[in-house]
Amino acid sequence: MGRKFLVGGNWKCNGTIEEVKKIVTTLNEAEVPPEDVVEVIISPPFVFLTLVKSLLRLDFYVAAQNCWVRNGGAFTGEISAEMLVNLGIPWVILGHSERRSLLNETNEFVGDKVAYALSRGVKVIACVGETLEQRESDSTMEVIAVQTKAIAERISNWDNVVLAYEPVWAIGTGKVATPIQAQEIHCELRKWLKDNVSPEVAESTRIIYGGSVNGSNCKDLAAQPDVDGFLVGGASLKPEFLDIIKSAT
Ligand code: PEP
């Protein structure tokens, strides 16, 4: 069976109740390819998860942007995977580069989070990607392999994992990877999965691209054989997000 295209919208730390309602109305009124062609996941800030879930069309899903590394307790400011389950939130984004760089989340910590969320039944979009400095020193694949290995060492079932290749130099910069650059890394990452996990996992795991995807560049990226969808930041707050969803067909 082929890999179903997946488009995630990461709203990051943006939005008011009014803006959330407006974006959700736009999404709800849109005609997009059916759910068996494209899986759409909307990731608002924690405080809007319930509101978005209550208003959003039923063929789109909701993701949190992070969760704690184990069960709840004395961890001020954190949200546990159990709480996401309790709210009926099926997905979580983990290891986003903003959390890795601004909040010092290590590969091991991200790997532990991925394993814990999966163990609670929350599906994971796990982000990996290199900085500009790392790309320029030709260590892109090495960096991504180390990040992915920290996840692979901690999980045994990849069914509920999507990998998001998000080059840090492309996130929020307007500097998108070319389709050739994206395909090259996605293909290498799939090969890494084949060699280090299993051919089956390599074949079935979706690898989505993130980094300045917009309504104009999505089609060419989506045409690449190893690009199985997108994680979208800035453009997910705009009507062009619908064009990105439609690039699945
Ligand atoms: C992201 O935050 O995951 C992202 C890819 O952001 P942007 O699309 O704005 O580059």
Describe, in plain words, how this protein is organized in 3D:
It comes from Nepenthes gracilis. Homodimer. Belongs to the triosephosphate isomerase family. With 249 residues, the chain is an alpha/beta fold. The chain has a domain at 68-235: TIM Barrel. Helices cover 40% and strands 16% of the residues. It has eleven helices and eight strands. It has an eight-stranded parallel barrel with strand order 1-2-3-4-5-6-7-8, surrounded by four helices. Helix 2 links the parallel strand 2 and strand 3 (60-64). The radius of gyration is 17 Å and the shape is globular. The two termini are 17 Å apart. Phosphoenolpyruvate binds next to strand 8.
Question: What keywords describe this structure?
Answer:
alpha/beta; single chain; eight-stranded parallel β-barrel; 11 helices; globular; 249 residues; binds phosphoenolpyruvate; TIM Barrel
